[in-house]
Design brief:
The structure is a single chain. The chain is of the alpha+beta class and 481 residues long. The chain has 13 helices and 23 strands. The chain has helices at residues 2-9, 13-24, 52-64, 117-125, 142-148, 155-158, 256-268, 305-308, 328-342, 377-388, 413-427, 441-446, 456-466, and strands spanning 29-31, 37-38, 41-42, 45-47, 69-72, 89-92, 99-100, 108-112, 129-130, 165-171, 177-180, 231-238, 240-241, 245-253, 275-280, 285-287, 310-314, 318-326, 347-349, 366-371, 394-397, 402-407, 433-438. Strands 19-14-18-15-21-22-20-23 form an 8-stranded antiparallel beta sheet. The chain has a 5-stranded antiparallel beta sheet with strand order 7-8-12-10-11. Strand 2 (37-38) and strand 3 (41-42) form a beta hairpin. Helix 7 (256-268) runs antiparallel to helix 10. The longest helix is centred in the C-terminal third of the chain and has 15 residues, at 328-342.
Length: 481
């Protein structure tokens, strides 16, 4: 293993390896392998501390030897954003797991950062509760979801996961364990900068700059920072009762403008949906009744769809789906109203469509995230189509103007760059943005992942304040921070 070889050749490397084994236990400290990468950058060591104090010792060891540290949860979003400049120690949070301090009937629960979100939901469900969080990444840990501020369909009603955060325990760059209670708690006397832009989508950047540095909600500071400002140990989250009734109302849609009109109608009806999701896949042709080639309407036209049995009119380009939650009778009544508002071929179902809560992109694709006011979402989708010269798969929360799109991973970097420039040119006048969530290495190196970020000076201040020596995930944040 190249990483292991470089580690053993470094002066003091064996001593570092021995100390990591003492801190974490021999089975939980090792030289990194080829799979231990962060956006393509291979680590030197992997450490899996067994608790907060062991994790603090790892950070103190890194500080003593001037080593960089990058946290990793389940690794579902490890290739999002920019590659770090260097990964000396990959700090795996898998043993920082569990649900702690959860009184029966409490409206909050403290959850270890390394706990898989599915495990949290399964545990809470036994008492009829849930986190109002439905991040799309399968197997993601709560810490990873918060570090990327990754939100799913429920963001319309409940906001992003960071909106559910009421307390946090984290380790700073020097290995000091910081505990914060309710939102607004002072950071041990430090003047706390506002939440920075996350490397994947800049989601927390919307909060950055709502006020001056002192006195802001530092419990949400780490959201979207991808481990670049601190290592999350646990988070205290809001919990709620599991809804007794859930209904999905679906309607086929053909154009982004049609989606715009329907979303406005649903929101104006004040039916309190929990989610309004859009899926616009690449259209496919529909089979149709064949006509004999000798028929006068197709003579001389062997490629006519009546002869080939394929229609030039695309199938329904996608779906608009509204989720309603609450008491069964109330949900049923509101579902009937939504069906009436949507009209057309709208139907209600007690199960979600297959694509619900999944991204439109896959491994190896260039994944884009578009955020724009809902009244301009159709313009953003049209701009993306025009720039790409084809229909691009788009999926996400039409009710809040946040969607993801997929470009083929085989697309040349210069082509991706031209598409980004065109889309961002349309969005800039609409207070929107388009960021690259993940991409193949050649694209990641060649394009501007984030576009223009007015908050970059304040982000530099935050990094300098909390990680002045740039030991935590250096280069993962915008601007190479």
């Amino acid at each position: 293993m190249a990483a292991a070889a470089s580690s053993t050749n470094r002066p003091g490397a064996l001593e570092i390896t021995r100390r990591l084994a003492e801190i974490c236990g021999p089975p939980f400290a090792r030289f990194a392998g080829p799979a231990d990468e962060v956006a393509g950058r291979t680590a030197r060591w992997v450490a899996v501390p067994g608790g907060p104090h062991a994790a603090a010792e790892v950070l103190r060891l890194a500080a003593a030897h001037d080593l960089t540290v990058v946290p990793r949860g389940a690794g579902t979003k490890i290739d999002w954003g920019a590659a770090p400049e260097q990964v000396d120690i990959l700090l795996d949070t898998g043993r920082l797991a569990g649900i702690w301090h959860e009184p029966q009937g409490s409206a909050v629960a403290e959850v270890g950062a390394g706990t898989p979100l599915r495990a949290v939901q399964a545990t809470l469900e036994r008492t009829g509760r849930r986190l109002p969080i439905d991040a799309p990444s399968p197997g993601a840990t709560l810490g990873g979801v918060l570090a990327a501020d990754e939100a799913g369909p429920l963001r319309l009603r409940h906001g992003t996961p960071c909106a559910q955060l009421v307390g946090v325990r984290y380790l700073d760059a020097d290995g000091e364990l910081v505990s914060l209670g309710d939102a607004g708690t002072a950071l041990l006397g430090r003047a706390a900068p506002a939440p920075p832009a996350g490397p994947a989508d800049g989601g927390a950047a919307a909060l950055f700059g709502r006020g001056e540095l002192p006195g802001l909600d530092v419990a949400r500071l780490l959201c979207g920072s991808q481990g670049g400002l601190g290592v999350l140990v646990s988070a205290t989250m809001q919990v709620q009762a599991v809804p007794a009734g859930r209904v999905w109302v679906s309607r086929p849609v053909w154009t982004p403008l049609e989606v715009h009109d329907l979303v406005r109608a649903v929101l104006a009806a004040r039916l309190y949906p929990s989610a309004v999701e859009l899926d616009l896949p690449v259209p496919v042709s529909l089979p149709r009744r064949r006509v004999h080639p000798s028929h006068p309407s197709v003579v001389g036209r062997p490629d006519h769809p009546a002869v080939t049995g394929r229609s030039t009119r695309p199938a329904a380009a996608g779906s608009l789906v509204v989720l309603l939650e609450g008491g069964p009778a109330d949900v049923a009544e509101r579902a009937d109203q939504v069906v009436a508002v949507l009209g057309g071929e709208a139907v209600a179902s007690h199960s979600a469509p297959e694509w619900w809560g999944h991204y439109p992109f896959g491994p190896g694709d260039t994944a884009l995230r578009i955020e724009v006011p809902i009244n301009d979402l159709h313009a953003a989708v049209y701009a993306l189509r025009d720039a790409a010269g084809a229909v691009v798969p788009v999926r996400g929360s039409a009710g809040v103007g946040t969607v993801h799109a997929a470009l083929s991973g085989s697309m040349p970097p210069e082509r991706v760059a031209s598409i980004l420039a065109a889309v961002r040119g349309v969005l800039v006048a609409r207070q929107g943005r388009c960021v690259v969530v993940s991409a193949p290495a050649p694209v990641r190196r060649a394009v501007d992942l984030w576009g223009e970020l007015p908050i970059l000076p304040r982000l530099r201040t935050a990094k300098a304040h909390l990680d002045p020596h740039h030991r935590l995930a250096p280069g993962r944040l915008p601007g190479g921070l």
